[in-house]
Amino acid sequence: MDEAALRGWLARASGDDALRITALTRLSGGAIQQNWALDVEVAGQALRWVLRTDAPAVLAVSHTRPQEFALLRAAREAGVTVPAPLFLCEDPAVIGRPFFVMARVEGIAAPHRVVKDATLGGGREACVAALGRELARIHAIRPPRADLDFLGDPQADAALAAIGGLRARLDAAGTPRPVLEWGLRALERKAPAPLPPVLCHNDFRTGNIMLDAQGVAAVLDWEFAGWGDPHADLGWFCAKCWRFGQVAQEAGGIGPRDAFLAGYGRPVDAARLPWWELLATIRWAVIAADQAARHLSGQERSLELALTGHMVPELEWDVLAMAEAL
Amino acid sequence: MQEKPDAADLLATAREVVLNELLPALRPEKAIAARMVAAAIALALRQAAAPPMSEADLAALAAEIRAGRHDPGTESHAQVAAFLRDYARARAAVSAPKVLG
Q1: A313 to chain B: nearest residue by CA?
Q2: What is the mean pLDDT of residues A179-187?
Q3: In this structure, what are the phi and psi dihedrals at residue A35, rounded to the nearest 5 degrees?
Q4: Average pLDDT, whole number, for chain A?
Q5: Which residue of A56, A92, A138, A269 has the smallest Cβ count within 10 Å?
Q6: Is A294 exposed, middle or buried (0-12, 13-18, 19+ CB in 10 A)?
Q7: Helix, strand, coil share (%) of chain B residues, nearest 5
Q8: In terms of pTM, does the model score above 0.90?
Q9: Which CATH superfamily groups domain A3-103?
Q10: CATH 3.30.200.20 domain residues, chain A
Q11: Which residues in chain A touch residue B65, judged by CB atoms under 8 angstroms apart?
Q12: What is the pLDDT of residues A7-34, one digit of tens each?
């Protein structure tokens, strides 16, 4: 990281020639993005920011940093609790890749802590109600939106498009998975009629939401957002596979489903939720299998990825029961 | 005959060392790695002890299911459903036995 170049750019962007970088440290982060804790002094004030940029190997399925910046702005305008997006640099010459800067939010996102630590989130029921409200604000964002044109046109039928996308990933991976096919075929037979599209977060789940003692500190990880059926997010959040062992707490392992849906407040077609929860379970199985494939191919040897692959049979067991009940 | 203890005994004993001796001595941020090692050993032991799986043509079955050839109402539906249940149970018995109750 060229700190002098970064400082110069930040000074111009913030309008303070004397801006000082007091700390710049790499945060633990994904294989896709790099996050840096960035402490600055601007106009005599000490501020804590995060700089977010692509890792050298960019995954094609995820949004670029400029696109993620646009999503954060749209979400913040809609009242969603997200870190304030501050500056976007699309010029790769400054630090080698495009990046953006956002406010640094303090809180806990680690899923096993979030589901077990009742001091987080301002009370369990209040927390899931607040998460329902966050999701409703996200879903209030509707196409067309010039600032989000990179999302493309909405699919005519989000449910069938989701099935087609997962089949394509299974085909690309090349391992026959008859149980997942069984679930996908059940979904195809019972696909719900299309609804007017809304902005879906597409990874709204425990682990991607930062909590503090008061409530929701930030909704994170916007890289899969796109136009779709709002029930997709509701089903992803409630699916059993995202409860981190607290199976009785149907809203993300944190609290009751009723409180979550009451907080959501918008009309929910309850009959659609089992459909999207089954889709969520299959989607996570496909992702888990793809993660293990990175280990198996030698691309990224890792015990964690290897064990993630062994989550697939548990998900398949659930898929059979869910398909039967659909 | 190979010398005893055998592979299963050695792996099980090694797992006890990881959990009982190494884990408590590790820095907290390394605990998860030790737990993953223990989980991987347990899983490998279950897989080694599992009966061999059937040699069904899974690719053909997957394609048929996708094409709707085993949908409810077809002659083969119940038979394929039963096969998938056995198949999924055998896989979960190795990878996630807790879900089978």
Answers
A1: B92
A2: 98
A3: -115, 135
A4: 94
A5: A56
A6: middle
A7: 70, 0, 30
A8: yes
A9: Phosphorylase Kinase; domain 1 (3.30.200.20)
A10: 3-103
A11: 178, 181-182, 185
A12: 999 999 999 999 999 999 998 666 567 8
Statement: residue B101 has pLDDT above 90:
no
> Three-state DSSP class for A17?
coil
Q: How many residues are recorded in chain B?
A: 101
CB A192 within 8 A of CB A199: no
Residue A229: count of CB within 10 angstroms of its CB = 29
A53: β partners:
A34, A99
Tokens coding A40: 């600055």
Domain covering A111-325 assigned CATH 3.30.530.20 in the classification:
no
Task: Provide Rg for chain A, Cα atoms.
Answer: 20
**Token pair belonging to A144:** 């067309």
ipTM for the predicted complex comes to 0.94
A34 phi, psi to nearest 5 deg: -115, 135
Ranges for all domains in chain A classified under CATH 3.90.1200.10: 111-325
Q: Which pair of structure tokens corresponds to residue A142?
A: 């509707």
Report CB contact under 8 Å: B95, A312: yes
With bands split at pLDDT 50, 70 and 90, how would you rate the model's confidence at A60? low
Average pLDDT over residues A280-288: 97
Contacts B59 to A, Cβ<8 Å? 176
Residue A178 has pLDDT above 80, yes or no: yes
Q: Is the peptide bond before B5 cis (omega within 30 degrees of 0)?
A: yes
Measured between its terminal Cα atoms, the distance across chain A in Å is 52
| Distance in Å, alpha carbon of B96 to nearest chain A alpha carbon | 6
Hey, what are A251's tokens? 């809203």
Per-domain residue ranges for chain B?
1-49, 53-101
